[in-house]
Amino acid sequence: MGKSVFGGRQLGVATQHGKGEVIATVLVPALQLTRVFEIPTPTDVLGTFSGETERVLSPVEAAREKCRMAFEATGNSLIIASEGSFGPHPSNPYFTANTETLVLIDFDTTREYMVHHTSPKVHWNTQTFQSLQGFADFLKRADFPRHGLLLHTGSKRANEIFKECRDVQELEEKATFLLNQQGLFIAESDLRAFRNPTRMEVIGEAAQKLANLLQATCPNCTEPGFDVKRKIPGLNCAWCGMPSPLAKAYLKGCKACGFELEEAVPQKAADPQYCLFCNP
Ligand SMILES: [Zn+2]
Ligand SMILES: [Zn+2]
Questions:
Q1: N or C, which end of the chain has less CB nearby within 10 Å?
Q2: pTM, whole model, 2 decimals?
Q3: Ligand nearest to the CA of 257
């Protein structure tokens, strides 16, 4: 492994939600950092999953904003932030996917490195209750207390949402309180990373993707982040030899010096099923 340009530096994680450990596990060895430390950043002002604060920034803008806040608070020049979103999976809209955006900014050089990672691994359950009947079964399905739960009544106003229940007894007390007040309650999986180990796992995968990106250095200037800019179609068909829409190469480029390199795919020919002439 070559020497990392980030070697010997410390990386601050702008977070309120305990993401430091999973990021440290991957990035400390990959980037030869001295350490990763959490910078408690009041990220809830940028919006929350549980909906008390509407999110107005895009995930990328929100992650950048968190980096900037953490840099201004500490002066540490290497900062990372993550932002998660949940929505239909790009390749199968019937499934929900978790996309994690990781933004790392080096405030010494003002360079930014970013990855998006989408995973079908999502732990999210919800159910509405008019009594405590069936609640115990739901708790098993929701994997409580390993995964956290929110209790609310649908309006999600800050005073009517319980986020911090740690055991079944506390959960039942709050549920009973809401039943007495409103006649119903909604239980819903907590998506905050430190209360949702499934999401934390996806953040770990995103960190690995970022490590791979940063370990890919430009052959011309050695800047990290030498990455695919676009695919070059035209892999020849195995039967007729005509160019197919499949990639014959990928164009990689460096954002720092502009150097570009075409990297051929390992396949010698395209499967005829993708050929526009053999298999229209
Ligand atoms: Zn370069
Ligand atoms: Zn063909």
A1: C
A2: 0.86
A3: 1
